[in-house]
Amino acid sequence: MSEQNLFEAPAGWLKSAVDALLSDGVEVVAPVGAEDGTVDLAPVSSSGAITLEYLNVNQPLKRLFFPQTEVLIEFERQDDGDIDVKSQSAPPEEEMVVFGCRPCDTAALDVLDKVFAWDYDDLRYRERRERATIVAFACTGPDPQCFCVPVGGSPHGSQGSDVLVFTRDDGSALLEVNTPKGEKLMERLGAVARPAQPDSGLPDVPDIHTGFDPEKIKLWLDDNFENEFWAGASLMCVGCGSCTYLCPTCHCFDIVDEGIWNRGERRRNWDSCSFGQFTAHASGHNPRPDQAARYRQRVMHKFKYFPERFGLVACVGCGRCLRACGVGQNLVSVLHDIEKT
Amino acid sequence: MKADGPATDALRKEAADLLSRGDVGVVIGYGRQDDADLAAPVFARNAEDADRLVFDDHCLGNLAVYLPRSEIRAMGRAGVVVKGCDLMAVNVLLRENVIKREDVVLIGTHCAGVGEPQLEKCSTCDVHSPEGCDVVVGEPVDQPKVDEEQRYKAAAEIDAMSVEERWDFWRSQFDKCIRCYACRQVCPLCYCKRCIVEKNIPQWVATSAHLRGSIAWNVVRAFHLTGRCVGCGECERVCPVGIPLGAINQKMSRHVGDSYGFHSGLSADQEAPFTVWSPDDSDEGIL
Fold it and tell me: Do B184 and A240 touch (CB under 8 A)?
């Protein structure tokens, strides 16, 4: 890394950057608004499609690297009775630049990187990560459901981003370069941004009002696998998977074979610990027989098992689970209740 | 409607009485958490808990979803707070023998509509005052005359498209589906112990979130609710990717209404299409 890691970009820089990358044949993924008002990361073919009006994108960044469904192998029965098995081809080699994700979602990549390179080097995940340069946008207006700070993040957190952008009201921006990949991108963008003056201060970090202590919570979790608390805390949970599927760190998957009489494919699909079938055994036995056991797993995995195994909590405080829950199940209040006991 | 209004006062008193008399083991109602937009469920087990109950225009959910659950049944007889729309779902649970009338105490609430902005379904509501409850709290609300066309507006807008446009529309909607099954889990009438998508020997409906799997799932969901769905709108409200499921339900309801003169949920002793048989049935359509 060179010493110069702060760049100044004039209003309109994003358009210039995106157009330059697109004309170079780079895949650009950026926030795009839908008719219903939601904003999601999607590949764009022009800078005009990009919106900057959002607190966070609706669906988490993880799906770019760990897609909801993907083909692992294809198989086909041949005329001579042999089964021909084809491994699905690798992701495209062209580079991808992702604009507009938030620091919570990039911090979540740290969690995913650890899991997908743990006991097994997940080639597909790694290839997708390697081809991507991530240009995150620092948060300017977190909402009351945001809680990145107590889980170790910040609205200005640079963890997981190659470049972190601080946008000013007039559209100009300060670009903080955090990795060699980010440096390479800045070189490529050339005149779009110029080195900032050494005295260019970063904007103030917006406040996050939610607080709790994950270490204190873990101490309680260590001793309370069996506790009536879980039955009460999970009573309103109806057992859908929206919190897990919108969670930027949840990474459980199922592997299924789908096919017709002579050919098919093996797919990897997201799965959720909220579902009863997630742990159902072929015998009929289910070690997590009720929502209390399933909800406990979700909290334990994020705040006890993951920290024990990898040294960090598997929650980045993006608040999606709070916003998306249709019945109002609130992880932060559950954690507050744990802290109080 | 304010959380500290007369409906809340009456509700707390009724719930506390039911609980302290031992008439019920739990009262399922709504509570408020800070300034959340959505009033989350409260499961009051004693008179003291009853003070956490509220009723106001943040009470969006349909609490009937909890009645068939084993955790709730284990608490004994259940009191449940129901708006008129929620009561329609309770009527179907009664009609389908999922719950027994003597096992529930229905605490109805007069309701002028919920949500900020108000939910679309409330503009065509004709059950502002629930009928057939054990007790009803709150101020009676004038029942405006409902325009039938308005009730099926979302479906009609889609019907107005050409076949190709409609296919494109639904394809783009189902392509968004992430298969979280929030629509199913929040639906009071999706009480199957094992859903068809969970039947995997063989796997009848592909679980993958590709277009084929998600179309299959959403069509199966619609079929299984045809003639049963009461239009409470919970599936669409909770969908994290904004699929207009209400329009599908409207379309199916309208079909059942036009074909059989049946509107689900109006009472607990309706005879529903496809569930009764009589030798006098018309044999039109039977091959």
Answer: yes
User: Could you tell me the CA-to-CA distances from A270 to A50, A66, A67, B163, B253 in Å, in that order?
Assistant: 28, 9, 8, 33, 33
B164 belongs to a structural domain: yes
R_g over Cα of chain A: 22
Same domain for B178 and B115, yes or no, is no
Peptide bond connecting B202 to the previous residue in cis, omega within 30 degrees of 0: yes
How many structural domains does chain B have? Answer: 2
In a domain, B214, yes or no: yes
Question: Nearest Cβ partner of B185 from A36, A239, A330?
Answer: A239
What is the span of the domain harbouring residue B169?
148-260
Q: Taking Cα atoms as reference points, which of B180, B243, B240, B177 lies closest to residue A58?
A: B240
How far apart are alpha carbons B180 and A248 in whole angstroms?
Answer: 15
Most A CBs within 10 Å: which of B81, B179, B189, B203, as the mutation test of the A interface? B179
Asked if the C-beta of B193 comes within 8 angstroms of chain A's C-beta atoms, the answer is: no
Which of A34, A242, A330 lies at the smallest CB-CB distance from B33? A330
Same domain, B79 and B177: no
Same domain, yes or no: B157 and B52:
no
pLDDT in tens, B8-62: 999 999 999 999 999 999 999 999 776 778 999 999 999 999 999 999 999 999 9
* Listed residue (B7, B57, B51, B9) closest to B36, CA to CA: B57
Residue B274 belongs to some domain of the structure: no
Tokens, residue B103: 């096992």
Which of A36, A242, A286, A320 is the best residue to mutate to test the B interface, defined by the most B CB atoms within 10 Å of its own CB? A242
8 Å CB contact of A240 and B238: yes
Q: Please list every residue in chain A whose beta carbon sits closer than 8 Å to the beta carbon of residue B243.
A: none
Q: Are residues B121 and B234 in the same domain?
A: no
**Taking CB atoms and an 8 Å cutoff, what residues of chain A touch B65?**
238
- Would you give the end-to-end CA distance of chain A in angstroms? 47
> Per the domain annotation, does B132 fall within a domain?
yes
Per the structure block, which two tokens stand in for B176? 């968004």
Whether this prediction's pTM lies above 0.90 is answered by yes
Note whether A33 contacts B: Cβ–Cβ < 8 A. Answer: no
Segment B242-276, tens digit of pLDDT: 999 999 999 999 999 999 999 999 999 988 888 88
Tell me what ipTM this predicted complex has: 0.94
> In the predicted model, is pLDDT for residue B287 greater than 70?
no
